[in-house]
Design a protein that fits this description.
mainly alpha; 2 domains; two-stranded antiparallel sheet
Length: 435
């Protein structure tokens, strides 16, 4: 027996009752940032191979990544889904996936926006659109999108807690911390295991400068966000930031060793957290020792990704933190060559990625004046890197430290150390470390 709608009344194609149950489990896990999503989807497709939305969710899991290899793995998933009989809304999902694979994230967001106008209770569309808003640094769009669909939902609908969690994160990114905290608490009242809501609380405490509250909350609720979730490493990162805010460098390093980098994960999201944490520790004057070398080795495989400026910046943090001039230079030259390409990454490299990476090289290799100039010029545009304010703060903190060293060079004992390495050569001509 086939079924025509999901648990929120959205029309679906190719599903059967047992397959729909597995799909709903996958969607619930996806919304709450919990594990097991893939296994539930495989079960749904075993039971109903023509279940369009199960194929769609599989593809979305791939294209929501910052890893270009994982994104491209969605091509056969899209081809399979496109061969099936789909309804009008499902075809919009396929178009959004196709847009991402064509490197058109703005087109994907616009398509998902059109879809949500037609079907505001499409939980998967909202989940993915919110993710793309985050990836592209579109805080205004993130807030407007969630606010526009909330009136179509009720608290009794499956997944309503996830809307509140998304709403909480967007409010926090907009600086409305009181409403963000209330929305996150409302989400947790509905689902105490919503890891996304715990993450939103961490951002509220970080951005409102309440490290003691943050430590208390994260410790008391660790069982909720650290077990079988896709955000555990990132939440441990937040806890380490709270300790750094209090000057507890040893506690932050312990969290790095035992939680953030314990498994030597190769996932880009985990590498980003590791780079940002070690760099903040470095800015506090602490020596991370051999940790930098291990992290630089892990980032090496992504020097030639040519996909995400946010990742490029965090790779550069690892290379300069390790004092690895060769890899830092390789990445800079790669970006210098690609900045002229008519691609999304080419544009973001030209405006943000390359200046930020050169600023980090200048900062670490002794040219604070260049680092400060580049970072100061970059600040008004930094949202375009994507990520959260808490993540992008690493650039602002570097700017402040560079200014401090310029004002008191003798105190900081930091002067030029041959920052100007041999110039890169690319199709666009010679480049060098300059504003």
């Amino acid at each position: 027996m086939s079924v025509a709608t999901d648990a929120r009344g959205c029309a679906i194609s190719g599903a059967h009752p047992s397959a729909l149950l597995a799909y709903e489990r996958a969607l619930a896990a996806f919304q709450g940032w919990r594990g097991g999503i893939g296994a539930h989807l495989e079960q749904a497709l075993q039971r109903a191979p023509d279940f369009v939305m199960a194929h769609v969710m599989q593809a979305y899991l791939a294209v929501s990544s910052r890893d270009p290899r994982r994104v491209l793995s969605a091509r056969p998933m899209l081809a399979r889904a496109a061969s099936l009989r789909a309804n009008e809304v499902e075809r919009l999902h396929l178009a959004a996936i196709g847009a991402v694979l064509a490197d058109d994230y703005e087109g994907a967001k616009a398509t998902l926006g059109e879809l949500l106008l037609r079907q505001p209770r499409d939980a998967l569309a909202l989940q993915v659109a919110h993710s793309f808003d985050h990836l592209t640094g579109d805080t205004v769009g993130m807030n407007a999108r969630v606010a526009s669909v909330l009136p179509a939902w009720t608290r009794e609908m499956p997944g309503y807690h996830a809307l509140l969690s998304m709403h909480a994160f967007g409010l926090g990114e907009s600086g409305d911390y009181a409403r963000a905290e209330q929305a996150a608490r409302d989400a947790l009242a509905l689902n105490p295991d919503d890891a996304r809501a715990h993450h939103a609380m961490a951002h509220v405490f970080e951005m409102s400068e309440r490290p003691e509250d943050g430590i208390r909350w994260m410790r008391e609720h660790a069982a909720r966000w650290s077990g079988d979730t896709i955000v555990a490493t990132h939440c441990w990162w937040h806890l380490a930031l709270f300790h750094l805010s209090r000057g507890d460098v040893d506690d932050a390093l312990l969290l790095y060793d035992e939680r953030v980098r314990a498994g030597r994960s190769a996932a880009i999201a985990d590498l980003i957290d590791a780079s940002a944490l070690l760099w903040r520790i470095r800015l506090q004057g602490a020596d991370a020792g051999s940790r930098w070398g291990e992290l630089a080795d892990a980032w090496d495989a992504h020097i030639d990704d040519g996909f995400c400026s946010f990742s490029d910046v965090h790779a550069m943090l690892a290379f300069v933190g390790a004092g690895d001039r060769a890899r830092a230079r390789r990445l800079e030259c790669t970006l210098a060559a690609r900045q002229s390409l008519p691609t999304r990454h080419g544009r973001s490299t030209r405006r943000l990625g390359l200046p930020a990476c050169r600023a980090l090289m200048a900062f670490e290799f002794g040219d604070d004046a260049t680092a400060v100039r580049l970072l100061a010029n970059l600040s008004p545009l930094a949202d375009g890197l994507g990520g959260s304010h808490a993540q992008r703060d690493v650039l602002h903190l570097t700017l402040l430290r560079g200014v401090a060293r310029l004002r008191r060079p003798s105190r900081h004992g930091h002067g030029p150390r041959n920052a100007m390495l041999p110039a890169c050569r690319s199709g666009a001509g010679r480049t060098q470390l300059q504003a």
